[in-house]
From TrEMBL:
Cofactor, how bound (note): Binds 2 Zn(2+) ions per subunit. One is catalytic and the other provides a structural contribution.
GO biological process, one term: carbohydrate metabolic process
Tree of life domain: Bacteria
A matching Pfam family: F_bP_aldolase
Protein name: Fructose-bisphosphate aldolase, class II
Swiss-Prot/TrEMBL keywords: Metal-binding, Zinc
Keyword Zinc appears in the UniProt entry: yes
Organism: Actinacidiphila glaucinigra
């Protein structure tokens, strides 16, 4: 199964009223786990590499991107490759050479007018190269940006932002928050319905790790399409490594505990996809 453009996966999920799971990849084992989980669920998925993950790899995009693309190319189900939360223009431009089908350009920390102008330019650049572009409307700074629990996207502003920028998908703030390690977020389902009516493009939920399964099901039924999940994989990965090493002080071969971590991440991916699909 070839690597599939994210646009196709999102379009199909949108048309069928399904969610498409987009999972953050940091290491090769993450990519292998996303594909294994998607194959176990028999559902498509997106592997996404964030600007923070690229920073972890010393600023090099190509090694982790091409490795992830190669894993996706050998998958038995359709898998997309997405570059996530890009604030650096130079990184945005490198996406075109590394197999990505889509990018989230994140200028949400900028004042509104500059966010609109920068996002319009990013969308034009992406479309000239056949890339699908996701962006975010935001006014609140800090680590969580608009994905802080109290932040909300205004439907009229969302509609105006989509029209002014020409983006393909909009990340919205509806009650989730990045990097939660408990699944206690409550989403504003009334707002999701209003955003679905106002925005003419598919909606993206960030910080989905903290959202319980029943809330995710309601969110997808209400119109959220691309569901971004990152921390859940790291909870699985780190938990498995911790369990393994706590029970075994002799092993030095990392393949032993990385196998365990990869298997547990794959289960997390499979469960999430079954909820969304
Ligand atoms: O863009 C990536 C996601 O928003 C991941 O959020 O780590 O809280 O699941 P999460
Ligand atoms: Zn995010």
């Amino acid at each position: 199964m070839p690597l599939v453009p994210t646009a196709e996966l999102v379009r199909a999920a949108h048309a069928d009223g399904r969610g498409i799971g987009a999972f953050n990849v940091i290491t090769l084992e993450h990519a292998e786990a996303v594909v294994a989980g998607a194959e176990a669920a028999g559902l498509p998925a997106v592997c996404q590499i964030s600007e923070n993950a690229v920073r972890f790899h010393g600023g090099s995009l190509a090694p982790i991107a091409r490795a992830t693309a190669a894993v996706a190319e050998s998958a038995a189900v359709p898998v997309g490759l997405h570059l996530d939360h890009v604030t650096d223009e130079d990184l945005l431009r490198r996406a075109a050479d590394c197999g990505f089908g889509s990018v989230m350009y994140d200028a949400s920390a900028l004042p509104h007018a500059r966010n609109v102008a920068a996002t319009r330019a990013a969308a034009d650049w992406a479309h000239d190269r056949g890339l699908w572009l996701e962006a975010e409307l935001g006014e609140i700074g800090g680590k969580d940006g608009v994905h802080a629990p109290g932040a909300r996207t205004d439907p009229a502003e969302a509609a105006a932002f989509v029209a002014a920028t020409g983006i393909d998908a909009l990340a919205v703030a509806v009650g989730s928050s990045h990097a939660m390690t408990t699944r206690t977020a409550r989403l504003d389902h009334d707002l999701i319905g209003r955003l679905r009516g106002a925005a003419t493009v598919p909606l993206v939920l960030h910080g989905s790790t903290g959202v319980p399964d029943d809330e995710l099901r309601r969110a997808v039924a209400g119109g959220m399409v691309k569901i971004n999940i990152g921390t859940a994989l790291n909870i699985a990965f780190t938990g498995a490594v911790r369990d393994f090493l706590a029970a075994d002080s002799v092993t030095v071969d990392p393949r032993r505990y990385l196998s365990s971590a990869r298997t547990r991440m794959a289960s997390a991916v499979e469960s999430a996809l079954r909820v969304l699909g």
